[in-house]
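--- STAGE predict ---
source: upstream dedup step, 1 unique chain passed
mode: sequence only
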Amino acid sequence: MNPHSKDSPSRPPQQRPGGKLTWVCKLAWGKMREGPLPLFRALRRAFFRQLPIGWQIGLVRSWHHLPRPEARTVRCRPSTLEKEGQVSVILPVFNQANLLRESIESVLAQDHADLELIIIDDGSTDGIDEIFALFENHPKVRLLTQPNKQLPAALSHGFAFARGEFRTWTSADNLMEKGQLTRLLAFLRERPDCGMVYADYLVIDDMGRPLSGSDFRPEFRASPESAEIHLPRDTQALSLLQDNYIGACFLYRSGAGRALGDYSAAMGIEDYDYWMRLQAGFGIEHLGTNEILYRYRWHANSLNARAREIRLFALGQRLMATERERQVLRARPWCYLTDDDNRRWLDSANPGQRAMCFHKDLCGSEDKSLAFLSPESLDPEDLDRLPVDLIIALDWDGQKKSILRWSARLNDHRLIHLVTDPDLSRRLAIFTDSIFEVARGKERMGLCEAIGHERIYDPRSRHGIDLPLPRPWTRDERKRRLLVLDGLGHSKGPLSDLGAALETHGFAVEVKGSLEPGDAELILSDSVMDAQRASESHIPFVVCFPQSKTISILEYSSQWAKAGSLVTAFLFVCPEAAMSGIDELGIPADKVLVLDERGPTNAWADVLAWIMDRGRPHAARPFAWRSRGRTESNSTESAGTVQVSVLMPVLDPDPQQFLAAVDSILDQSLEDIELIIIETPGRHPLTDLLDTIEDPRVSLLVVPRKTLLAAARNTGIAAAQAELIAMMDADDLSHPDRLMKQRDYMLDHPEIGVLGTQLEIMDEGGAPLGRRNYPVDPDRIERTMRLYNPIAQPTVMLRKSILGTEDCYDERPNCICEDYDLWSRLARKGVRFANLDEALLRYRIHSQGMKSQRLRASLVDTLHIKKTYWRDRFDLRDWARYLSEKMLLLLPKSWVMALFKRIYVKKGTS
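--- STAGE serialize ---
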């Protein structure tokens, strides 16, 4: 029996006289040693927590002028996309091999039998393969591996493979109690209107013993000797008071997870951000008992123990500011649009507000708009002309024939797919996972509003963006044995070519005309004739169609219906062929995968490897191939030779200026480069412009939603192949030797993490206006950073390795000077900066590029950055500059802009 269960309550030991007072004094002394500010914050919080919870919430709302949220229950019902009753547990691990085995065993020992455990090695280097080898054949365990991408990406990648109705995740150093999943799942079964449940836990030390007398969470412990953490029952304050008290013992619904999208890497506190989003959309509740269902290990490398090192409090402040912005957005009313098919139920579900008639030519982007439409009311091509903030809920009931027409656009970030027919869900799941099975009415309306808030506000969510997913782990990276059966004459060439190409991606391939299983691990065929024999030999059997033809012409059609249950997966490159196979030959929709025929061979290799790993991969995410001009051969061969990755974010550029900027990169004297263009959807897509560019070094990454410039740059950083990353704007011009000179300097000075250059200034037509000079010496740059930003963003070349989880561009909408913010954060962590003493970039100033509203916002953000990162190093000169800049906010906008232009261009200083 669990000694901490409700049936056997654990009572805190009797305190000796003065024990609690001694403990409080010890905690106060510890805060004093940290500094006066931590002590003041601790005392302020302690007194504030003594107020009734209603008073606390009211004071915070009044102080920040926050609206009261509308009381609305949003349910997220189970879907045919998830296995009913199953729990998916994700376990990301990085260099904790010594603790991993015990953590895995605690998950597998759960008394809830129907679970899957997905373990992701996030680039460990401490011999974790020995632990993985112990569990590689366990039926409930999937082992994945990827280069180090930090915790948010590891979690999001893990849940991309999850198939359970419920989700949770744990850490390699923590332990689950045996009854954790059973108790939490039972609560969610009883409370269908609750999206997530959390429970109390026990703190343990390095050796696994209850930890007493520590300063961890004293406000939630009954006594100094107690190691039990009993969390608040009320979650109203979660999004108002800066305190991530949810803990590590929780369970939430997979439908809510799909609605929210990925964990965000931008905030630096990915779990707290996720809980606040989940609370706002679907609700979070405590289990309601004192049961201890989890053991949290407190040690030197745990997140809470490293709070000061990673500036957890400052990250929390940034997150709370973001959440306040989200609350204001949620309080704004929706503008509802609809067609005739949806008007009746929509008006009855929301009698207080009549929906407007939808017309694609009259949609504006100024409102928070939500359209409920039938797929027949809109053409997929119309999405390019609609506002990127318009959320469209498509009602698919009775619209099966429209799936093929929409297949290429089903994964658009603005679309929510609503169904009640499970067969339609399975068909749509071939192309997207944004599918929700909910009947017409208030429940459907509330769900779409919750999803809409996420997709309008949060550009950090990587939902739908193509990122490399982890590969299945194999012992010693051994070759996987693949047997290719090339038996049908019309597909002999493509299937044989595919088999030959797979040999360069970790497969030992043997091509034959008939089945001789031998020791093959997977069979790839163009028919189902040998599916029965493969099933008898317990070998996964995959039917593949590596060409764009419908399958109605195939022979042996009478055998398809019989063999469908024996085939592991059906792979198509053509949506028409996939739909034909489902309708004409009875292929099960949940076994169909569609890959882009233009994609690289490694996409096929990943799919086959995942199938070998006892699971069908996620259909919607890994396979879109968006590169232009890059052939399959050079995309794989050049991966190791790219010396510099150039990132160019683009939104509705001037065609001539854009093409000139691209040419200035492609004409560089350094040829071993890649140019990644990150396009944010606008009124004029880049398709036609890029069709004129044949250079294979150019790739287009389309961000599937309106996003901030900082988020676009972060997306490009994640996709970059090279260690050296150069920034470029779509209207500037780079000197032909810019990348070569910067590359050489970075190679000669390995201590430099970020390198810029001087600037030449030109007007819209390209006429020279002047020059802007920056300090060159690293020490002077760090000193100057307290006064202004001494690194010109468009000239930057940086090392990808210096960027961690929180060390990317800040994606908050109110962070105008995201480059200055990033340089300040990196400088405080010891990164060294330098500037070349040459002007290697021509910077274009637009007449509309310095609007007074943005200029004042930039000034406000600059002052905030200085106060946040540099105030502790200010001298009299720094304080004088800071106060004088604050005084500028009192001047008329036109005066400030005129002064800025004069200083910026002519004097060469900031």
